[in-house]
Amino acid sequence: MAEGFLTEDEVLAASLFFTSSSEDVVRIAWTFITLGSNRTVQCRFLINQLNAAPLLLARSNNKDKDKDKDKDDSMMY
C-alpha cells in the first residue's frame, strides 16, 4: 500500500467485500466512511478488515443457516 492508496488487488477485494449485506460488513462500511477524513488510517482499517473478512463472512453465513433452522417448515403450506 502506498501511503493512503490501495493496490489493485486490495480495491478488488474491497469491492467484493462490500457487496455483502451482513450486519458486520455494514458496520465496517460505516466505520470506513467515518474515517474518510484521514485517508491513511482509512486504508489501514480497510486492509485489516479485508484480512479478517473470511472470518466475518463465515460467521455471517453461519448466522443465516441458524435462522433457516429456526423456521417452521409446517408454515410453508
Describe this structure in words.
- The termini are far apart.
- The protein has helices spanning 8-17, 23-34, 39-70.
- The protein is globular and about 35 Å long.
- Helix 1 runs parallel beside helix 3 (39-70) and helix 2 packs antiparallel against helix 3.
- By secondary structure, it is mostly helical.
- It has one domain.
- 70% of the residues lie in helices and 0% in strands.
Concise summary:
This protein is an all-alpha fold. It has helices at residues 8-17, 23-34, 39-70.
Shape: globular
- What proportion of the residues is helical, as a percent range? over 70%
Radius of gyration: 16 Å
Order of secondary-structure elements: HHH
| Total helical elements | 3
Largest sheet: none
